[in-house]
Amino acid sequence: MFSVKKLCQVLFALGIVCFFQTMPVHAENLDQSVKDMYEQPESSKAENAVKDDSTTEEKAVSSSGVGLSFSDFFRMIFAMLFVVALLYIVLRFISKKSKTYQQANFIENLGGTNLGNNRSVQIVKVGERVLLVGVGENIQLLTEIEDEEERRQLLEAYNQKYEQMMQPTDFVMKLKKKWTKSAVSGESFSSELKNQLEEMRQSRKQLMDKLDQKGRDDK
User: Fold this and answer.
1) Gap between the Cα atoms of 157 and 145, Å rounded
2) Which end of the chain has a smaller Cβ tally under 10 Å, C or N?
3) What is the 3-state secondary structure (H, E, C) of 35-85?
4) Is 0.85 topped by the overall pTM?
């Protein structure tokens, strides 16, 4: 089971790597020289500063909109389904191989309990016989389970426990719910951030309009 868990972790990490994208880097060119900036009036400097902030926020809004587009969301869902399907196929293959290997063995340990001091009681299936043995300093046969109904119940309980242990359905469903929840949370955060930046852009624009109006009034 340790190797199966390691394999699941590797496949899950591979699916996450498919989502990573490089962040865009923007460099803004300034057309004004140092002399022009020095000779500008104070009101023009404040107006340019507000314009720069507004431009930066508009770019941030557009960047946030591009950060989680429909194609990105579709690609994320597709990668999630691919990883889930791959996990399901691999776990089913391991389950069949393990079951075939168990059936090929003439001796199977059906379970047991620890009694302390390196002593335990084990139920062992040897061929068609089910034996109850004691394990300590030596191995001793305690009894043989000959009742057909009791043997059938023990074997059914063992097979059911083994199938549940190797069944990937629960793992896949938990992974799907967790992944869907993360995608919805990311989309909500992106929308909220976009709304906040839009409000800031509107307030900056209003302030810029007021400065323009004040400059015309002064003239």
Assistant:
1) 15
2) C
3) HHHHHCCHHHHHHHHHHHHHHHHHHHHHHHHHHCCHHHHHHHHHHHHHHHH
4) no
